[in-house]
Structures are given as C-alpha cells and as structure tokens.
Automatic annotation (TrEMBL):
InterPro entries: AAA+_ATPase (IPR003593), ABC_transporter-like_ATP-bd (IPR003439), ABC_transporter-like_CS (IPR017871), P-loop_NTPase (IPR027417)
Alphabetized SUPFAM superfamilies for the sequence: P-loop containing nucleoside triphosphate hydrolases
Keywords: ATP-binding, Nucleotide-binding
Keyword Transcription in record: no
Protein name in UniProt: ABC transporter ATP-binding protein
Species: Paenibacillus lignilyticus
CDD domains referenced in this protein's UniProt entry, alphabetically: ABC_DR_subfamily_A
C-alpha cells in the first residue's frame, strides 16, 4: 500500500475540482489508476467523463486539486507520456489514410510504424482512400490507429465507439485488446457501449454528476452486485 506512485500507479488525482464559470463539472475526485490495466470510465452524458480525460491529458487544468501522470503534472512538456483520442473528429478530409498517419507521426518521437501498419491491416483500411470518403466507422478506426500507434504509458480514449456500426465497434474492441501491452501501458476508455467493452476492463469507474459513484476491479463489482457491468449500469443510473 505504501509503494511509490511511479511503481504502482500510472496516475493519481487528489481533490480534483473543475469549474466552468457557473458550472461545476468535477467535484473533489480522489483516484488512483493502476499501471498495466484497461480501465472503463462509465457514466451518462454530462457525468464528467470527457472533462476528466482532458484534465488527465493536460488539455485543460483543474480548478483545484492535483493530477499526476507518472509522477508529473500532465501538460505539453510531458505529452510523450500520454496519447489522447478525443470524441470529436479532427481529421483532415483532403488527406488520404496514409497521409493522415504520416502527418500525425511527425509530431511524436514515440510513433511505432510497425504497429500502425499492423493495425491498418486489421482495421481493413485502404491507405490510399481519402478521409472524406470514409464512413464514420472507418474514420473511428483511423483515429484509434493514430492513438494506439504511439508507445506511451497512458492512452486515453474518449468514446471511441460513439455512433458507429456494430461491425466497426467489434473491430475496434478486438484491436484495443490485441494491441494492449499488458504491464507496459494503461488504457482509460470512456464509453456507453458497456456490453461489448466489458470483457476488456480490469477496473471500472462509474461517474455521476462529476463524482465517483463506484470504483473497483470489474471482478469485484460483478461479485458484489451479482450481475454484469451492463446490469450494474442499469442499477446505478436507471
């Protein structure tokens, strides 16, 4: 229990609040995220999932409290520690798939070209196809390749399955599971697709109104409630 943060946890949040003018988005969150795990970040719209991920990525800063990733505050200076996939689509439509990945790779020294090529094959994307002509599901797959092709200790995925077809969801979930480097990386994934994602999760955070409602290992939560995570969602939020 007294091991240093850098040995046991990839991230630690202490008393974190986030306010936007009159809106209080995150209320005093205390959280430790274990290294080498896939963590499900669950909650309805407006529960604070995106805000929490953006703060962990160093995109925005807490109003008060402290966030550490690998023992340091997340900001532009330690972007090599974190890969962040936003829910919004920020791809350039005039580029091809190949040009998109080449463009993104130029920003990061940790880019793994072999992993990108392997994922392109698994995701069944044509490298010469223009991004503007890709379906929403294909664009989601391309965004995921961009995030998972970096060799970083922490990967943050904000709703990677949002609004896409079941076939693309299945491909993305399989890819996350196969590319995950257990013990080397930690993935925090926010999603509403609990049923499909549940088998991946080591730990699960349930957010409600900017507060942590539940946080434990998926195994402990299923044992405590006697049901699946999908059914726990229904008990917590319905």
């Amino acid at each position: 229990m007294n091991e240093p943060i850098e040995q046991r946890n990839i991230a630690e949040l202490q008393g974190v609040h986030k306010r936007y003018l009159l809106k209080h988005a995150i209320y005093g969150i205390d959280l430790q995220i274990r290294k080498g795990t896939i963590v499900g970040l669950l909650g309805p719209n407006g529960s604070g999932k995106s805000t929490l991920l953006k703060m962990m990525a160093g995109m925005i800063y807490p109003t008060s409290g402290r966030i550490l990733v690998n023992g340091r505050q997340p900001d532009v200076r330690n972007k090599s520690q974190i890969a962040y996939l936003p829910e919004i689509d920020n791809l350039y439509g005039w580029m091809t798939v190949k040009e998109t990945l080449r463009f993104i790779s130029g920003f990061y020294d940790d880019w793994n070209a072999d992993k990108a090529a392997d994922m392109l094959e698994k995701m069944e994307l044509d490298i010469n196809q223009k991004v503007r002509s890709l379906s929403k599901g294909m664009r989601a797959r391309l965004k995921l390749i961009a995030a998972l092709s970096r060799d970083v200790p922490l990967v943050l995925l904000d709703e990677p399955f949002s609004g896409i077809d079941p076939s693309s969801r299945a491909k993305i979930i399989r890819s996350i599971a196969s590319e995950f480097e257990s013990g080397e990386q930690t993935i925090v994934l926010s999603t509403h697709s609990v049923k499909e994602s549940e088998p991946m999760f080591d730990d699960v955070i349930f957010l409600q109104g900017g507060r942590i409602k539940l946080y434990d290992s998926a195994e402990n939560l299923r044992a405590e409630f006697g049901c699946s995570l999908e059914n726990i969602w229904e008990k917590v939020y319905v």
